[in-house]
Amino acid sequence: MIARLEGRLIDIVLWGSLAAILIFFYIPIFTLIAFSFQEGRFLTLPFEGISLRWYGELFRNANALNALWNSTLIAVITTVIATAIGTMAAIAAVRYRFRGSDAFRLLAGVPLAFPQLLLGIVLLLWFSVLGRMLDFSTGITTAIIGHIVYITPFAMVIVAVQVYNFDATVEDAARDCGASSFEVYRYVTIPLLWPGIFSAAIFAFLLSWGNFYLTYSLAGSTRTLPTFIFSGIAIGSSPLYPAIATVIFIPGILLVILANRLRRT
Amino acid sequence: MADEVPRSWRDPDLLIKALPTVLLQTTCFLAPLVMTFLLTFQRSRNFQLQWSWDLWTWTDVFSKPHYWTILGHTIFMAAACVAICLIIAFPIAYGLATRFKAWENEIKVLITFAFITDATLKIYGWALFLDKNGMANYTLSSIGLPPEMVAFLYTDWATLLGMVYSLSAFAIFTLYLSISNIDRSLILAAYDAGAGKFRAHWEVTLPLCKPGIWAGSVLIFLLSVGAFLEPKVLGGGKSPMSAELIRQTFETRVNWPLGAALTLVLMVVSVFIVLLFSRLIGLKRAGLAA
Questions:
Q1: What is the reported pTM?
Q2: Distance (Å) from the C-alpha of residue B97 to the closest C-alpha of chain A?
Q3: What is each CA distance from A58 to A61, A65, A190, A246, B36, in whole angstroms?
Q4: What is the assigned CATH class of domain A61-234?
């Protein structure tokens, strides 16, 4: 009797705290969504009316569209490169034993625990000094390099989970049947790792697309969505910015759902 | 599923896979760090970097208590953030690993999405919510509470709230992993030995998820030491933290050597604190064993 009461109580506490944390997590997100439909110019309550006015403004605003394009370009290139490097690193880190493999894992993973702002600053110094010597300035390319440094470890960790659960005997079987090592990769390894690789790519894309700190330091005068929004907060904003936010949320939630589906199968 | 035979670095299979990462992280992570260190021995004059190779910058850093007060404040905020994150993450992680099975995937999607959404947006959303004329006050006053009850935007509390918000998902994920790796039969054994739910939890579950607690704490601590958006947007820049000080040193004062030195001090001090704590915890464990 007491045990059952206890179980009941624990259930209430756990579900209660889950509800509390989800509300906590979604407060700012729903605040932004709500304000994006505000008719008036100011971001205060009560609403003057509900309209899609600011979404229209958004698609007429050249700076916002330009920022959207830059974000997407940076994210796509980062995703491809970071996922490729991260996947290879994951296989090397989990499957192979070699001299210095511990040092390799440390080196490959340490940017994960490095504050992004500081990483951005350290890289900015690096590119500024190199740039002075080799005559280039910061811009889209340096931003992409910064994103790759930060996101590759994430991709590696996600793929590593998949590699860890991978049965290597399948590869041996293919080899015994006469497959070349390219064929083994093409028809066995890559297809089996695919769910992990694909969800790593999705996360890489989202992390890069929404990245503020590295872009802020490294993109020079190029604006991406997050830096565009940050500059908007400073100059006394209009519902244009919540509208941008809402537009950003939609592909985000869809991609997260997709990644989750993939990892389950 | 590791190889039986150790591979040499001359093996092309290994080389192809490991070399890109090694090249990337040495040229774009280690090398910049080394250069940052070297920059601290230079001087900045009239906003220009001069290669002078002396200890001028370091004397400056060690002679101004202002920098160290900010550093202390930063460390304190980071520690508070770690503690709060662990407390709020534990029930969620525990529930996810044990009782939320039916909704596990949906919950994970919701948490992941909130976690991965752009930091600027979320912090901006909080600023709008907590504003004097924002959502929180409007809701509270419309149910009859006194106006402007939520008045902690632009205080340290708002900064802390933002930091906990941005980082608590790390604690949820690391705790979840370590709790779901616990062997259920150990807990059942505790019940058989007559322990109640609470006691089994305290003496079996908690000690067994120590690695998760530790991993989450280290990650959150190191990342929150670099918090910048939260103190700036939610804290209103009133009591600056190290990251903002560093940023200003680069941006407004254009003093690269000083900025580099402050960056290194922040990194070294936080890594030192992590090592110190891991040593302390290690000692305690050894003491218990003896």
A1: 0.85
A2: 11
A3: 5, 8, 41, 11, 40
A4: mainly alpha
